[in-house]
Amino acid sequence: MKIVLLVVGKTDAGPWDDAFKTYSDRLAHYVQFETEVIPDVKKGKNLSVAQQKEREGESIISAMQAGDCCILLDERGKSFTSAGFAAYIAKKMTSAPRRIVFVIGGPYGFSRAVYDAVPERISLSEMTFSHQMIRPIFAEQLYRAMTILRNEPYHHE
């Protein structure tokens, strides 16, 4: 089983990248975890928001593989406690055929085509975070879920 974080665009190096790397490295103890980066849309400044979302959406959909269990990270998605997210991950890991792919959209969100292609959505918060911040937040919550599933002392109720 592999868990993939599919993201649009690179982030600037710095403390957020360092935090993401810390939790990505920790995850290697529990599960195959990787990040796939979809390049920013070329000449995006010359496009309308709708056009940019559409192009990003095409790239997101083309990055998905047959058999993937895809989940959008979206503030309007289903919310979980950390323990609830751990149970959700455990269920996905036993039912997903190959890869569980969590998707972070571009700065304007997802296109209609992506929402149509991937109906499952979860929320890490009702608030909006920068793309630099959400990556380590997600990685930490995934790491926390893995420690919960193994009854390790990282998470405290």
Q: Any overview of this molecule?
A:
With 157 residues, the chain is of the alpha/beta class. Helix content is 43%, strand content 22%. It is built from five helices and five strands, in the order βαβαβαβαβα. A five-stranded parallel β-sheet has the order 2-1-4-3-5. Helix 1 packs parallel to helix 5 and helix 3 crosses helix 5. The model has no long low-confidence stretch (mean pLDDT 92).
Shape: globular
Number of helices: 5
Helix content: 40-55%
Nearest-angstrom radius of gyration? Answer: 15 Å
Secondary-structure element pattern, one letter each: EHEHEHEHEH
- The CA-CA distance between the termini, in Å, is 28 Å
Write down how many β-strands occur, each being a DSSP E stretch of 2 or more residues.
5
Q: Indicate the low-confidence ranges by residue numbers.
A: none
Please describe the biggest sheet, giving its number of strands, its sense, and whether it closes into a barrel: 5 strands, parallel
The portion of residues forming beta strands comes to: 15-25%
Spatial strand order of the main sheet: 2-1-4-3-5
Which descriptors apply to this entry?
157 residues; single chain; alpha/beta; five-stranded parallel β-sheet; 43% helix
Please summarize what this structure is.
The chain is of the alpha/beta class and 157 residues long. It is built from five helices and five strands. The protein is globular and about 50 Å long.
Fold topology:
Blueprint: E1 2-8, H1 15-27, E2 32-38, H2 49-63, E3 69-79, H3 82-95, E4 99-104, H4 112-117, E5 121-123, H5 131-149
Parallel strand pairs: 1-2, 1-4, 3-4, 3-5
Helix pairs in contact: 1-5, 3-5
